[in-house]
Design goal:
The complex is a heterodimer of chains A (356) and B (250).
Chain A lengths: L1 H5 L3 H25 L5 H26 L7 H18 L7 H27 L6 H18 L1 E6 L2 E6 L12 E5 L4 E2 L7 H19 L2 H11 L1 H6 L4 H24 L4 E2 L6 H14 L4 H17 L7 H17 L1 H9 L15
Antiparallel strand pairs in A: 1-2, 1-3, 4-5
Chain B lengths: L1 E10 L2 E11 L4 E5 L6 H8 L7 E6 L2 E2 L5 H7 L1 E3 L12 H8 L8 H6 L2 H20 L15 H14 L4 E5 L7 H17 L3 E5 L3 H7 L2 E6 L2 E7 H6 L1 H8 L2
Parallel strand pairs in B: 3-8, 3-9, 6-7, 7-8
Antiparallel strand pairs in B: 1-2, 1-4, 4-5, 9-10
Helix pairs in contact in B: 3-5, 3-6, 5-6
């Protein structure tokens, strides 16, 4: 055991630090919240922070480690959200325990989102270039459009699906609409809380860090760094691109499951292009290939608009100015130089590479 | 072991390689030379499946490997280096070699994520194997360095180490001595001899440095405008007036 401790790889050490940091934050916030010192709106947003951090970590796997741009991660999130919420509603009688139902819904939502990633990845990841960005952009819009006209109702004889037309009238005894077109899913039980969000965030973080630091992860990064060289050493390119993309989409699905069990009403229009871009901003600001950075920037950029709420109309203006400022502070060569001169180390950065 | 018959590729109106035939014996050190633009690297790209030949066949140990994908060609036993170095720039020196070991060791993605015993076992062996390879090239002290931060000569060596890590029978070296000074070239020649013995390799190399070519190659093929100009033992070929003309002009 001692031998193993000594040989902890650098990435495992970094992971340990991040996890310990998250646990510490969790304890502090829980204590503050229990003593009643946390405002109501703050208390509400905690789970949302975890959700965005999870999807940012997932997208970073795709953009930072696989080197493929995805502009439709909100689409995978909506797959996870709708599948899981439908399950939770449909099985309300069959599985009385809410948490058991949620757990199965979580697995189901994750798998379905990963499956969607797989189906999209098969044709697109065989190509080289920016095709994935284009196709995921389309996927995000198509899935939103489809879900907007999707109706699922339940009655005593089972589930009924319908596209385009509202089928609520045709339901028999014990009718209940689950997905109601553009009005989305209403009344999903509120399961997601800060604890569940935090546990899943840590689980996701551990999975992706371990993945990256394995044979599979090396293959994925080799493809990113030099596809031709990766082929020349016998790495099946499409297979490993698919694995990475599927996992990334599955993680977006987890975020979606949490999201639909966090808000009582979820509509497809929530998962639009803006959300995909927002998550991409988290990833780019936090640093490609830096999971800790993704978490920190997701938290900061989700909190900012809330904290700026008092500024009412000027909120988004200030938000965008701050965003530009943060980007510059984080990435501008002069800013990096200045930080190095004054020996300021950003806690979310492993090491600064001023040269790049 | 490697038989190339009438290999040709046409890009539009240009026949970059035209009817090339070579027969390389087991354990041989074979040179492919020619003036710039003669089509030498294109031959490598044809042998490794980067390009599909328009005509001709390639046999490795009697098996037809024409038209296989690059990945498959590596699996059947051909590894290569590149003229313009292609390392995995964001990975460490050690990890570059471990990517080369990818197909030699196997554990599932799930075992990696769950850190099952098979992960630790395979990783330990991979590390040992990779360090062993690195020490052959004197790179073992640099194992944690980012590969893009290595000096030029060391990057070339690392590329060779990575190629050998895939366990090839045939190694293709594309201008291994490019950008090296005479001392480094001498050292490289020794290394090439050494790895041929140690890993029982057959080596086909492209080179401009005539000292290296005449120093280590046993046989040569000279390409000019995609066609074979001369073929035979190194000494005969280098004294061929046609070859001298192609290199130095009339």
């Amino acid at each position: 055991m001692n031998d193993k401790m000594k040989k902890l790889s650098p990435s495992t050490t970094e992971l340990l630090k991040t996890v310990l940091g998250l646990v510490a934050v969790y304890i502090v916030i829980t204590v503050v919240s229990m003593t009643g010192n946390l405002s109501h709106s703050m208390n509400n947003i905690l789970a949302e922070l975890c959700i965005y951090a999870i999807i940012a970590v997932g997208l970073n796997l795709c953009v930072g480690f696989l080197g493929e741009l995805s502009l439709g991660h909100a689409g995978f999130m909506s797959v996870g959200a709708f599948v899981s919420a439908t399950f939770t509603h449909a099985m309300a009688d069959a599985i009385p325990s809410l948490y058991v139902r949620f757990f199965i819904a979580l697995i189901l939502g994750t798998l379905c989102a990963a499956l969607a990633g797989f189906l999209i990845g098969i044709p697109v990841l065989r190509l080289n270039g920016d095709y994935l960005a284009i196709v995921t952009l389309a996927f995000g819009e198509i899935i939103k459009g489809l879900l907007n006209v999707f109706y699922v109702g339940k009655d005593n004889s089972g589930l009924h699906f319908s596209f385009v037309t509202d089928n609520s009238a045709s339901l028999g005894e014990g009718r209940k609409m689950i997905i109601n077109g553009a009005k989305g899913i209403m009344g999903t039980p509120h399961v997601t809380n800060f604890t569940i969000g935090m546990v899943l965030l840590i689980a996701v973080l551990v999975v992706v860090t371990f993945l990256v630091d394995s044979r599979t992860g090396r293959a994925i990064q080799a493809i990113r760094d030099n596809r031709i060289a990766a082929e020349s050493v016998g790495i099946p390119i499409t297979k490993f691109k698919l694995i990475a993309f599927m996992i990334s989409a599955g993680i977006a699905g987890i975020a979606g499951v949490l999201y639909s069990h966090y808000l009582s009403t979820v509509t497809a229009s929530k998962f639009d292009f803006n959300m995909s871009i927002l998550v991409l901003v988290f990833v780019v600001l936090g640093g490609l290939g830096n999971f800790r950075g993704s978490i920190v920037s997701a938290v900061i950029l989700t909190l900012l608009p809330e904290l700026l709420r008092g500024l009412s109309n000027y909120r988004m203006l200030i938000y965008s100015i701050l965003l530009i400022g943060l980007m510059l502070f984080n990435w501008a060569p002069k800013a990096i130089e200045w930080r190095q001169m004054h020996r300021i180390k950003l806690p979310w950065k492993g090491k600064d590479n001023a040269s790049s | 072991m490697l038989q190339v018959k009438d290999l040709s590729i046409q890009f539009g109106g240009l026949k970059a390689v035209d009817g090339l035939s070579m027969d390389i014996a087991d354990g041989e050190l074979y040179g492919l030379i020619g003036p710039n633009g003669a089509g030498k690297t294109t031959v490598f790209n044809l042998l490794t499946g980067v390009y599909k030949p328009t005509e001709g066949t390639v046999f490795l140990d009697g098996k037809d490997i024409t038209g296989l994908s690059t990945t498959m060609i590596n699996k059947v036993g051909i590894a290569r280096t590149f003229q313009n170095i292609r390392l995995f720039a964001e990975l460490s020196v050690l990890d570059n070699v471990k990517v080369g070991l990818h197909n030699g060791f196997s554990y599932s993605t799930l075992a990696g994520v769950l850190r099952l015993p098979s992960y630790f076992r395979a990783e330990k062996e991979m590390n040992e194997r990779a360090m062993e390879l690195l020490s052959v090239f004197g790179l073992d002290t640099e194992s944690d360095t980012l590969s893009s931060n290595l000096p030029y000569g060391a990057q070339r060596k690392l590329e060779i180490a990575r190629a050998i890590a895939t366990g090839p029978k045939l190694l293709l070296l594309d201008e291994p001595a490019a950008g090296m000074n005479p001392n480094e070239t001498q050292e490289l020649m020794d290394t090439i001899h050494f790895i041929r013995e140690k890993f029982s390799l057959t080596i086909l190399l492209i080179e401009h440095d005539m000292r290296l070519v005449s120093g280590i190659c046993e046989r040569l093929t000279v390409l000019n405008f995609g066609q074979e100009l001369a073929q035979g033992s190194t000494k005969d070929v280098l004294n061929d007036p046609e070859v001298v003309k192609a290199y130095l002009g009339e």
